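So, could you explain this one?
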Amino acid sequence: MPTHSRGLLTRHGLRYLTAAISAGSLSLGLVISSNSLASASVKHASPSGTLTIATDEPPQTFDPIQSTNSTVDQMNLNDYNALVQYGPGTNAPLDPQLATSWTISPSGLDYVFTLRSGVKFHDGSSFTATDVAFTFNRIAKLGLGVYTELGPFVDAKVLSPSKVELVLSKKYSPFLDALSRVYILEAKLVTAHLGTDEGQSWLATHDAGTGPYELDSYVSGSVAKFSAFPGYWQGWTGHHVANVVYKFLASPSAQQEALQSGQANVAMNIARTALPAFKKNASFTVNVSSTLEEFYVFMNTQYGPTKDVLVRQALADAYDYKTHISSILGGYGEEASGALPSAMNCHVDIKQPTFNLTAAKALFAKAGYAGTTLTMNYEPETFEQADSFLLLQSDLQKIGITVKGVPSTFPQTVTMLKTPATTPNLVALYAFPVDPNPNEVLYQTFYSGFADGKGYNASQYANPAYDKLVLAAQQTTSTATQCADYAKAQQMLADQYVAINVSNPDYVTVLSKSVHGYDYYVMHTQTEDTYNMWVS
């Protein structure tokens, strides 16, 4: 899982991986069969009405290779499908989608998928194994975006029109979970528009999917419009909207105005201070959902004052966690308890440092950094990041420590992370797991291979003992063994004060009473399931 903010490049009570993993469904040689989706027949009902969603950031592209970015993923969920997929809600298992079943070889290196029949792309072409192989091999060739989620994937082979084999170079237990973000492209259509960049330019504003909605138009940074695809394989029985419109409004006040004026009937970024009034207004519903997210202030473990563990411990003691939850989040969230979000499987409830400026001052002095100046990177348009900077700056000033803010966009932050020397002492970022596997945080965020600009290791953390634990967890299908390794890894991060683990924020959406069927898509971070929504 890339650790990131809801910047232009990324976005992004469960305690489980999935029901399948808990039941041992990743055991070698097991055959996984389709659920009730296999019997879904295409019935051409008549979707009606328009669902208009106000959200803050436009996608950088519509190319699903970048689906680890939740602003892109939010769009992709409309017009694409994956082989397997999580449903919305907090207890969704990993279900078949474009696949109906699969087998895993005894070696754990070969995954063979049987594909759903009767599926059409939006231009009417039939979906086959050729499209699956093309999609995966394109990802491997480009080495971008979702590629980092596929671990040791090396090749996709067409066995027949309805069977495809995905080949790994070594065992990788998170592989199936990661497939929920690999959206299948129409090979023939994309090949016709490959250009010089494997179709990235064309897919940035075009649709090559099998999903319930087709991309009709996109006004860059302003509005994206989708319409129901009549031939969608799941059909249109029941309630569905005919059109989905996204309005990209950066300002919470602009979203509030759009919602109140009827120009939008869903708003995803209303200011916390405005929520009490919406709760009292009978025309609206305020939906509060648990998430897999965690907000951190990462500390540079390789360079500057924060290279000293005593300084990192002092900073952890100097953060006012309770004020963050009550004032910054307005009570919509809880204090973090360790580096792994509390809703994820294998989470260990690690005691947080307690806000104690006296102890922090003594630690700064012991480390020889009394009166030092630190830099903190944050995104000014993201309220939790900006306010966390102000909170920490204010409290550290009381004990003689200066914190200078480094306001920046997420792309600018990524550039800073290329070397320890250019990485600020403190970096405010979120972990937005792309699936509920602990690998998405403990590996993607803290593994040494993702430091030095190779990923989103914002602490520049490099510890061979830690790496050994998270890599071992990838090689076993035993949940108990994985959790034992992950427990040691979490304690190691806590003991070494790699980050200030601040909050597990809730996700709050305000909806008009005319909107029905909304269910926060926990597994897809800051997204919604438009197919099951309707407007009265």
Remarks:
- Residues 301 and 307 are 4 Å apart (CA to CA).
- Residues 294-505 form a domain with the Dipeptide-binding Protein; domain 3 fold (CATH 3.10.105.10).
- Confidence is low (pLDDT under 50) at residues 1-44.
